[in-house]
Each structure stands twice: as C-alpha cells, then as structure tokens.
UniProtKB/TrEMBL annotation:
Signal peptide: none annotated. It comes from the Bacteria. This is Acyl-CoA dehydrogenase. Residues 229-376 form the Acyl-CoA dehydrogenase/oxidase C-terminal domain. The keyword Flavoprotein applies. Residues 123-217 form the Acyl-CoA oxidase/dehydrogenase middle domain. Residues 6-119 form the Acyl-CoA dehydrogenase/oxidase N-terminal domain. The gene is fadE17.
Length: 382
C-alpha cells in the first residue's frame, strides 16, 4: 500500500487549486429541472474542456488516463474550494466505472465521452416499491423477443429520471429465476416509447426523485452490459464504484464541514464549553480515520481497477459520521448561533439530508451484511 504523494502529484494539486479558484461558478443553480440540468452540464463541460473531466478514466473514452490518486487530489481540492454539487451528473460520472469495466467497446465509445463532456445525463433504475435495498427481489421483467428485450414494470426513487437521457436498468430477464439469478443490467433510452416518469416532490418543493413506469418498452439486446443473466454481478460493480471511489468527494466535503463547525464554535465563543472540545476532537479523529480508509481504498483500487467490498466499510462509516457531525452542529452552535453564522437554511437542510446517507446507495444494514460476508468471511445472514 502506497499512501504518499509524489512531486508531480503536489504540482498537480497546485494546478487544480489555482484553476478552481478562478473557475468555480457562483451563480445560483436554477430550481426548475431544465434549468438545473443545463447548469450542471455547463459546469461539467467547463471541467472537461480544462482537462479535469474523467481524470482517472481511460484516454480512449475521453478521460485523462491519470492515476486514481490524481482523482482523489481533485476531490480534496474541490471540496476545500467549495465547488458545487455534481447534481444530475452524479450517476453518469460516479457510475461510469461499470461501463468501463464491463461494457462493450461500442457501448464505451458511444456513451463515456458524452458523459464526460456534459452531453448525456444518466439515472439509475434499481429500486422498486417492493425491492429497495433487497435488489434480489426485483420484479420488473424483460422478455427477450428477437433482438430486443421488452420491459414491463416499475422503478422508484430514481434520481434525476426526468432529466436523464439514459438509465442503468436492472431487470429480471429469466422468468423462472429468483433471487440474484436471472437479472440483467441494460442501457435504457429514457426518451423511448412506453416510458412514463412521475417526479416525486419532496417537502422542500424540489423533485429530485421519480417513479418510472415501463409499458412494453423495447430495448435492443446490444444494450445489455455484460451478458444476459449477469446483471447481479454488474450491479455489484455499479454499487462498488458508488460506495468506494464515487464517495471520495462526499468524504472530503465532510472534513471541510467539520472544520467550518470548529471555526464557528471558536468564533461564537462556545468551543470552550464543557465537553464541546472533546466532542469536536473525537469527530476530527474520526474524519482523519475516514481519510485513511479512503486512501487505502484508492491504493487498492489503483491496482485492481474495480473497487472491492471494502467500499462498504467507508460507506457505513461515512453515513454514521455525517449524521454525527451535522447533529453536533445543531447542538453546539444552537439556533441563534446558526442564524448569526449566515448559513441557517443550508445547515438545517444538510442536517435533515444527512439522515438519507444511511439509506442511499444501500442501507447501513446491507453494508454490515456485505462487510461481514465478503470482508470478514462470516456465514451469510440468511
């Protein structure tokens, strides 16, 4: 394991820091979905044109072909600079790994450069009303008919489906199968006939999540990633990238959030209150532990190209730590202090959203099962 930075790495960090300082957009992201998509994709295009899109992706598909540690450096500097959220580019950018690792040459050349250039938005079609974290229970079916797959069923909690061009869709293509067997991972054109998208409006008035219905949607067999029936394996690759390298930016952002909390506590004169310094010190130690885990994951992934189940340890640790840090901000700064800090609305929103971290990308209970079975080698939980 090599966790050190070279002189070239440090020079790259300086370049990234200077570029971000000069180019981060400070205009407000529109709230309507068309305006939000245009804003997100314009920023992605800016990064791509400057050579910072797909830093660790292969050059043949629009990336820079640089070591994964350079991607880590980018995320660290991006978080410190206060770069905007990736928005509707999340699935395409952070889940591009399965296409790189398992996609056909035609699939890679068609989609990967366009994802990096901000020309395609993707969404994920995994969860269903009766199959949230238990993907083995999905019932959306794909019937093979000639050179097509005819899909019928429903997905839910699909982020950015109303903005997306394509979807990574997990379906059951073997009608006699059950559990993990008989699933297929297929590229679905979200503009095709038979697809109905219904946005789910949350209490903040935004509609990031959607329901998606499929009524005899015909998808070419050439859109299957991997082979028919290999969907579970490809889906685990998808989630491995999301829980491992895809979480790097969120982890670095969390460390910035904690340091802001410490600065605000000092500025408001509450850092010296009994127990507060100890609480902040414990949280800082946990942030450093998470950083070490991330570096170890990057070191491993740089050798294997595909993140392993160890990514679930980071996902589990991050989800708990995010809740504790945002809860600490509510407790330590209190309502009056939050109001004086000028970030009241953002702080409350981040605190409430932190509870989603134990659900999105697989619940914490699922992560514990994965760690027990695939990392520790314990017997299956069922």
């Amino acid at each position: 394991m090599d966790l050190s930075f070279t002189n070239d790495d440090r020079a790259f960090r300086d370049d990234v820091r200077q570029w971000l300082r000069a180019n981060i957009p400070y205009t407000e992201r529109p709230r309507d979905f068309r305006g939000a998509r245009a804003w997100d994709m314009a920023w992605q295009r800016t990064q791509f044109d400057a050579g910072f899109g797909g830093i660790a992706w292969p050059r043949d598909y629009g990336g820079q072909g640089l070591p994964l540690v350079r991607q880590l450096i980018w995320y660290e500097e991006y978080a410190r600079a206060g770069g905007p959220d990736i928005g509707c580019g999340f699935v395409g950018i952070n889940h591009g790994g399965p296409l790189i690792a398992r996609g056909s040459e035609e699939q890679k050349r068609r989609h990967l450069p366009r994802i990096l250039a901000g020309e395609e938005v993707w969404c994920q079609g995994f969860s269903e009303p009766g199959a949230g974290s238990d993907l083995a229970a999905i019932t959306t079916r794909g019937r093979v008919s000639g050179d097509e797959v005819v899909v019928n069923g429903q997905k839910i909690w699909t982020s950015f489906a109303h903005m997306a061009d394509f979807q990574e869709l997990l379906i059951r293509t073997d009608p006699d199968s059950a559990g993990h067997r008989g699933l297929s991972w297929i590229i679905c054109d979200m503009h095709g006939p038979g697809i109905t998208v219904r946005p789910i409006v949350s209490m903040d008035g935004l509609a990031e999540f959607c329901e998606v219905f499929y009524d005899d949607v015909r998808i070419p067999l050439d859109n299957v990633v991997g082979e028919l029936g290999e969907g579970w394996s490809v889906a685990m690759s998808t989630l491995g990238f999301e829980r491992g390298t895809g979480f790097m930016k969120l982890q670095t952002e969390l460390s910035v959030t904690l340091e802001q909390l410490i600065d605000d506590a000092v500025g408001l004169g509450v850092a010296g209150q009994p127990g507060v310094a100890t609480q902040l010190g414990d949280l800082r130690a946990d942030v450093l532990a998470m950083r070490a885990m991330t570096y170890a994951t990057v070191s491993t992934a740089a050798r294997t190209d595909v993140p392993g189940p160890e990514g679930s340890m980071i996902k589990l640790f991050y989800a708990d730590l995010a809740q504790r840090i945002h809860r600490a901000r509510m407790e330590i700064i209190d309502v009056d202090g939050l109001d004086r800090s000028g970030r009241f609305a953002d702080d409350i929103g981040e605190y409430l959203y932190s509870y989603a971290s134990t659900i999105g990308g697989g619940t914490s209970e699922v992560q514990r099962d994965i760690i027990g079975e695939r990392v520790l080698g314990l017997p299956r939980n069922r």
